[in-house]
Specification:
Strand order of the largest sheet: 1-2
Distance between the termini: 59 Å
Shape: globular
Strand content: 5-15%
Helix content: 55-70%
Structural class: mainly alpha
Number of helices: 12
Order of helices and strands: EEHHHHHEEHHEEHHHHH
Number of strands: 6
Length: 381
């Protein structure tokens, strides 16, 4: 027998806890979105209409996304694809379904699609946070094995049954829950300071995907392709986050100069740093030196951004420079902390390096969306 009882996945009347959490997320999201839609004077039934499309499309796309990357499991029994009660839904597939639904509903109600996405984004990430506790109940979405006794405690780690024995693993579901709650709070702030329609949804993508890029690298049960070290959701998250930065850059094309190009180059370096570390941790420890060099290049890019912005504006802007300086100090600390670690176990060190890179990526998006972006008189809601 197991050393402790399993958590019962079924709550009451054959209904799983995961289903209850999903329904709770939908109801909370409905209340949040309805309130925001009312504030923006959108059609009174637009959120209900959106849910009627988004729920079925989200489930279908979430299932198809998962099955597409695990088709070998379902190839011999295609009908098992319909058995979603056995698990197998991917959040990015659900987001794709939501995008399709938003397109349909926006056209139906003659409302800008970006406006509808801005309304939905905070509720979406809050729902993702709530749903992560379903992962805990199902004992999934956990991370790397924790052998150090000093780290075998919740919330850093969680016990997962393997056969008849319980082992400590990183509580990656909880890490993402915490990050999602932070993103939700930030989106509520951004909602009141957005420059253009779609900003809130863009920041949802940038913030959520930046965090997911780091956390996904720590998980043990990720969907993979090409090799076991290439995690689909991690690659997709990094690409999505970078695309938001590129979008912020493109939409200020009237101000393209060395000042605005520098954050874009820095963002690309952030992605390179992240995946150099991922392959280093996975199997190629010889990449350690290149990973450290990428940190040095990130610091150089930060210095270049500050210098170019100072020359362009004719003054040193502490408000803009301070976040970069603080991030740069963290990166410099990691760079110094890496001295002598070439042959060490750098599992956690790589994650810290990735965290610094993703913070820098977020700052690049912030620079292009706010300080380097001129105010507009657009009438977008």
């Amino acid at each position: 027998m197991l050393s402790r009882p399993m958590i019962d996945r079924i709550a009451v009347f054959g209904i799983s806890w995961y289903a209850i959490l999903i329904v709770a997320s939908i109801l909370i999201g409905l209340a949040l979105c309805t309130s925001e839609a009312r504030r923006l004077n959108l059609p009174h039934d637009i959120i209900i209409d959106f849910l009627l499309y988004a729920i079925p499309l989200g489930i279908i796309c979430a299932r198809l996304y998962y099955v597409a990357f695990r088709f070998n499991i379902y190839a011999e029994d295609p009908l098992s694809i319909l058995d979603i009660r056995s698990g197998g839904l991917a959040i990015y597939g659900g987001v794709i379904g939501g995008l399709i639904a938003s397109r349909i509903v926006a056209r139906k109600h003659d409302v800008p699609m970006l406006t509808l996405l801005d309304v939905v984004a905070p509720a979406l990430v809050l729902g993702q946070a709530i749903g992560r506790w379903g992962n805990y109940i199902n004992m999934e979405a956990y991370g790397l094995r924790i052998n150090e006794e000093a780290l075998q405690f919740f919330p850093f780690a969680v016990e997962i049954p393997v056969g008849q024995v319980w082992y400590w693993h990183m509580a990656t579901f909880f890490y993402e829950f915490c990050w999602d709650i932070l993103v939700f709070a930030l989106l509520l702030v951004i909602r009141g300071h957005k420059r253009r329609g779609g900003d809130v949804f863009c920041w949802y993508l940038l913030l959520y995907c930046a965090g997911r890029t780091v956390i996904e690298g720590l998980r043990n049960d990720s969907l993979t392709f090409i090799s076991e070290f290439v995690r689909i959701s991690q690659v997709l998250s990094a690409i999505a986050a970078l695309c938001v930065v590129i979008y912020f850059f493109v939409r200020i094309r009237d101000r393209i100069s060395a000042v605005t190009v520098a954050p874009l180059i820095s963002a690309v370096l952030c992605i390179i740093t992240t995946f150099l570390g991922e392959f280093e941790r996975g199997a190629y420890s010889t990449l350690f030196t290149f990973s450290q060099l990428s940190l040095a290049l990130l610091i150089a890019s930060q210095i270049a951004i500050i210098v170019l912005w100072t020359l362009d504006s004719g003054r040193f802007d502490l408000h803009t420079a301070l976040p970069l300086i603080l991030c740069g100090l963290c990166i410099a600390g990691l760079l110094l902390g890496g001295i002598g670690r070439a042959n060490a176990d750098n599992t956690y060190y790589v994650s810290l390096r990735q965290c610094a890179a993703m913070i820098q990526l977020i700052l690049c998006g912030w620079l292009l969306c706010y300080p380097f972006c001129p105010m507009t008189n657009e009438s977008e809601r």
